Amino acid sequence: MNPPADHATAPVRLDKWLWAARFFKTRSLATAAIDAGHVRLNDERPKPARTVKVGDRLHIRTAADAFELTVLAISERRGPAGEARLLYAETEASVAERARNQQARALEPVFDHPDVRGRPTKKWRRQLHFFQRKQQD
């Protein structure tokens, strides 16, 4: 599949492009991330209304991962995920780092207790004791 050609030359706001490329679920979340400094455009801290051009370098930190990428195409329309992936090229270092982070998250212990306030339940206490014994071994 080729990048969408109909929007290739029209200037697009950074927050709209991040939304169209499916890095954020809503434009307001993209705007909040830009304002918080979680998005860098060509190693600068941009504003949400900054226009994105083909060839720009982006560093994006989301709640789960960090991405380093180059803009390949411009689109202000949010399409399917396959079309959104054609808008950018992620660097090899970024892909490797995300794979390492994903593996580390998979190895972290997960407790089934949904609410950690107050006293632990009997099941949660058993899990804590099991984890503590594993740490000592």
UniProtKB/TrEMBL annotation:
InterPro entries the record matches: HSP15, S4_RNA-bd, S4_RNA-bd_sf
Region (Disordered): 104-123
Family matches, as Gene3D superfamilies: RNA-binding S4 domain
GO biological process: cellular response to heat
Xref: PROSITE patterns: S4
Pfam families noted in UniProt: S4
Chain ranges of the RNA-binding S4 domain: 12-67
Keywords tagged on the record: DNA-binding, RNA-binding
Classification via SMART domains: S4
Molecular function per GO: DNA binding; ribosomal large subunit binding; single-stranded RNA binding
Assigned protein family: Belongs to the HSP15 family.
Protein name in UniProt: RNA-binding S4 domain-containing protein
Origin species: Chitinimonas arctica
